[in-house]
Amino acid sequence: MAEGRIIKALSGFYYVQAGESVFQCRGRGVFRNKKITPLVGDFVTFEPNEHNEGYITDIKQRENELVRPPIANINQAIILSSAKEPDFSTTLLDRFLVLIEAKGIRPVIFITKIDTVKGESSAKIEEFKKDYNNIGYEVEMVSSKYPEEIPELGHYFRDKVTVFAGQSGVGKSSLLNALNPSLTLKTGEISSSLGRGKHTTRHVELIEVHGGLVADTPGFSSLDFGEIELERLSACFPEMRELQDQCKFRGCLHHKEPKCAVKNAVEIGKVPLYRYEHYLRFFEEIKTRKPRY
């Protein structure tokens, strides 16, 4: 028996890295019977043979997992949000942040194509950066000239398993290519009618980048809050999580309750109004979603 980590899944095969070697493995039938699917990122026990092939016999307990993209045991998610084309959107950024916070994964924000905005637009994005820094998020401003900036970004990847998140067209493939030039991933051009890029990646694979592993995937393709309960939503906003115990009522949802510390913080400008408005919008979305059976 040997132990390793699945670094690629393709056509029913799981490629398991153990030390310097990679083994092409299949999953045992027992997984199918239990409706367990091995995921990229899983730590596994497997039976190897001399042809660098084998069978996965056991999957270790996961720290976390995502459905789309299907990957497990992620340390951080880098959210790419472009300054322009597509335009910077705090609503979309907050949607990604909530989904990532709900999984207990550390988010980092990269605002890309920052060299394409000037004047008032640039100043506005600087204000947003300050807001997110105050909440406790790390925010990097990244120009579209990736190769020049890669040395400064490398430390984010060391000893971590990272997944990228962000709408299409924000520069995920371009950034991966710059981080690991041997990849030569296709970059999808922006479709002007939809305002989004064309997906170019097909399978999930962990690739080595600056001493860590990065998931080469199309990023999140599902942005609904299907797995988040109403009572847990405010915990996905760090600035609200901090104030929770100061509300008069235990289990306060920061909606219509009186003497709410969060609503008070919004009034005095301690919590950005747009963050609270997004919270209310997501709150209604979760409240009115159809039950799943």
Average of per-residue pLDDT values: 85
> Which CATH first-tier class of the largest domain would you pick?
Alpha Beta
Classified in CATH, the superfamily of the largest domain is P-loop containing nucleotide triphosphate hydrolases
- Name the helix and strand elements from N-terminus to C-terminus, one letter apiece: EEEHEEEEEHEHEHEHEEEEHHH
Give the terminus-to-terminus CA distance. 40 Å
Identify the CATH architecture of the largest domain.
3-Layer(aba) Sandwich
Shape: globular
CATH topology (fold) name of the largest domain: Rossmann fold
Number of helices: 8
Structural class: alpha/beta
Subunit structure: Monomer. Associates with 30S ribosomal subunit, binds 16S rRNA.
EC number: 3.6.1.-
GO biological process, one term: ribosomal small subunit biogenesis
Binding site for GTP: 112-115, 166-174
Structure description:
The chain is α/β, with parallel strands linked by helices and 293 residues long. It has three domains: 2-61, OB fold (Dihydrolipoamide Acetyltransferase, E2P) (Beta Barrel); 71-216, P-loop containing nucleotide triphosphate hydrolases (Rossmann fold), CATH 3.40.50.300; 230-287, Orthogonal Bundle (Ribonucleotide Reductase Protein R1, domain 1), CATH 1.10.40. It contains eight helices and 15 strands. The chain has helices spanning 29-33, 90-102, 119-135, 146-153, 172-179, 238-243, 261-267, 273-287, and strands at 2-10, 13-18, 21-27, 43-48, 53-59, 65-66, 71-72, 76-82, 106-112, 138-141, 161-165, 190-191, 196-197, 204-209, 212-216. The strands form three sheets. It has a five-stranded mixed β-barrel with strand order 1-2-3-5-4. A hairpin with a 2-residue loop joins strand 2 and strand 3 (21-27). Helix 2 crosses helix 8. The longest helix has 17 residues, at 119-135. It is globular. The chain starts with a strand and ends in a 6-residue tail after the last helix. Residues 187-201 have low confidence and may be disordered. GTP binds at residues 112-115, 166-174. Pfam families: RsgA_GTPase (PF03193), RsgA_N (PF16745). Monomer. Associates with 30S ribosomal subunit, binds 16S rRNA.
